[in-house]
Design goal:
With 86 residues, the protein is mainly beta. The protein contains 1 helix and 5 strands; from the N terminus they run αβββββ. A 5-stranded antiparallel β-sheet has the order 4-3-2-1-5. Keywords: Membrane, Transmembrane, Transmembrane helix.
Length: 86
């Protein structure tokens, strides 16, 4: 899937849970928070021990559990919308 397809899919999916796989093999799950022309930002699924999702800081009132993480569209190899939260 090309850069523009990821951009448009992400724009339509703001607020929905996704799983993103990057070109380095990392897997990230969260809710799409914001989309810019170059990046998609997701809020990691929170809760748990450190209250920071992937370990970035603590509770941020503006973002929920943990800060939003940004991913460049060029680094995304797979984008899957999840049917439900677990």
């Amino acid at each position: 899937m090309g850069y523009h397809n990821y951009y448009h899919k992400c724009r339509q999916g703001v607020g929905r849970p996704v799983e993103i796989r990057t070109s380095r093999g990392a897997v990230h799950r969260g809710i799409i928070h914001q989309v810019t022309p170059n990046r998609v930002y997701i809020r990691p699924f929170g809760g748990g021990g450190d209250l920071g999702g992937f370990g970035y800081g603590g509770f941020n009132a503006g973002y929920g559990w943990g800060a939003a993480n940004g991913f460049a569209f060029g680094a995304i190899t797979s984008l899957v919308f999840l049917a439900f939260l677990w």
